[in-house]
Amino acid sequence: MLKIQAAVRFTRGIVIGPAYVVKEKAIEKPVVDPSRVVDHAMEKARFERAVEEVSRDLEKLALEHDVFAAHLAIVQDPTLSEEVFAHIEAGKTAEVSVDETIEGLKLVFQVMDNAYMRERADDIEDIGNRLMAALLQKSLRRFPGLTEPSVIVARDLLPSDTANLDASLVLGFITAEGGVSSHVAIMAKNRGIPALIGVPEAISSIQTGDLVAFDAETGEIYIHPDESIQADFSRRAEALKEREEALLERASSPVVSRDGKTVRVYCNIGSLEELGAAMPYAPDGVGLFRSEFLFMDSDHFPTEEEQFEAYREASEKVGNEITIRTLDIGGDKALSYFTFDHEDNPFLGWRAIRMTLDMPDLFCTQLRAILRASAYGSLRIMFPMITSLHEFERAKALTEECKESLKEEGVAFDSNIPLGIMVETPAAVFMAEELAKAVDFFSIGTNDLTQYVLAVDRGNEKIKRMFNSFHPAVLRAIAHVIDSAHKAGIEAGMCGEMAGDLRATEILLGLGLDEFSMSAQVTPDVKDIIRGLDVSEAAEKATRVLAMNDVEEVEAYLAGG
Fold first, then answer.
1. Which of 41, 193, 507, 526 sits between 20 and 30 A of 23, alpha carbons compared?
2. Would you list the domain boundaries of the chain?
3. Chain segment 161-218, per-residue pLDDT in tens
């Protein structure tokens, strides 16, 4: 028996089953034959036929998976063809030309500072594999012999791999590479599949057919577990299944505390695909629609019509309130088709509302799309990274201009659509009383707020341990924001990771939080906890916590109940 501990954990679930190890490469790298005389016209024609074949396949896949629409745009981009043709003109075969072009494009992404964009190199590799398979008339399928439910073990999985997988044969995923924004991570979250990523030992330690047991929440992986471990995991899996079934049965019931306070428990989403996966958990609405993913999964700035269709479809699917955060790009998020100037401190740079206020045409395109979609459901607009009242007033003025233009065009929209802000900067915390008088709602973004309050780069491995939303400074900032909102007669919600941390639920309720928004999978748990709490008792606990002086004291107190 061998035990491995995974560091990156982002789903939950307990799995016991046989391993299926995915072979390393879908398509072998072509060999350059310097003695071969290349017919330029024939090689170009072969490449064009491959593009046509791949385009047909991607058009079908794009109907079910948004990512393949972006792949299709890249395949049909004339720039790609021009680069391949240049290699062919230099005397190389279509296969070698595609390989060298794709390797060059991958390198562009791999050297980027941004983690999300680095992981998009997988998309480029996937496109290259498709083109190569079409040229060589080979199958892309990497799962021959997968006939029973198994734990899929791989170095990494590309979009084509996850799209081709029969979900009924997947017990869980373990990958050696990838991050939380990789395609396998997104698929696992969307489908509720237990997964562990960034486990390099898995490839060298696990063989197809090995019995594997893992707990996605704790990160424990056992290879050839003994009978006692198997029995323990079976008990834990059964207990988790029973608990989740019971929680789901109650998930759609109103969330009311023991002493009668009604609380809304929403989910965070970044795409229509995520929304579809969220609905079985019965969230009360969407507290954060990350609109930037519409931009990040495209090869161009989405048009007003493209955005309108996405927002309208989301509104009709949910049937309840949706809060759409306007474009939040910069910092740790970038666009493949838009170049940001180099910044020494991108998290403190030209991002989010700063960028959109400087690009009013882009901003108004999005605002018009949201306003038009508001005629089909209950929508709210939320502006990110606000640091001053002036920024909000400028964003509001642009929104009013968009309303006027739509009115003149005779286009329907909700004229009273609420306008709120993400409170995620120390400036917004200190200005909370003034901002609360101007906006319709607050939503606290604890991820960035914690980073800025504690001066901790959460992506820096050396100091990552210092990033903790239970730090007294962060808790006091949250308390001040909620108090300021209530004094002004508006509500305060939270859409950062802390909202889904079960240790924080009672404290946040005690501080007066009106709305919790989190990963959909956690919503049934948070709802159940709130139903068992008394707000006055939670408030007493929150008061005690606010008086504490260090994060260790807070966590010890919460752990002790």
1. 193
2. 2-25+142-245, 40-136, 258-560
3. 877 778 889 999 999 887 766 767 777 876 778 999 889 898 889 999 999 999 998 9
> 0.85 cut: is pTM over it?
no
pLDDT tens digits, one per residue of 69-120: 788 888 998 999 999 999 999 999 999 999 999 999 998 888 776 666 777 7
Torsion angle of C-alpha atoms 106, 107, 110, 111, degrees rounded to 10: -160
User: How many residues are there in the chain?
Assistant: 561
**What residue type is assigned to position 169 of the chain?**
L
Give the H or E element holding residue 3.
Answer: strand 2-5
CA atoms of 483 and 512, how far apart (whole Å): 8
Which residues are tagged catalytic? Answer: 183, 495
pLDDT at 180: 67
Lookup: tokens for 79: 């720039």
Q: Which fold has domain 2-25+142-245?
A: Glucose Oxidase; domain 1 (3.50.30)
Give, rounded to a whole angstrom, the gap between the first and last alpha carbons of the chain.
Answer: 36
Contact between residue 342 and residue 349 where contact means Cβ atoms under 8 Å apart: no
Angle at 475 between CA 474 and CA 476, to 5 degrees: 90
∠ CA 487-489-491, nearest 5°, is 100
Round to whole Å and give the CA distance between 34 and 198: 39
- Measured CA to CA, the distance from residue 252 to residue 248 in angstroms comes to 8
- DSSP string covering 261-314: -B-EEEEEESSHHHHHHHGGG--SSEEEEETHHHHHTSSSPPPHHHHHHHHHHH
CATH fold, domain 258-560, is: TIM Barrel (3.20.20)
Would you report the helix, strand and coil content of the chain in percent, each value rounded to 5? Answer: 50, 15, 35
The residues near 71 (Cβ < 8 Å, ≥ 6 apart) are 58, 62, 123, 126, 127, 130, 159
The CATH class of the 40-136 domain is mainly alpha
Structure-block tokens of residue 218: 């704790």
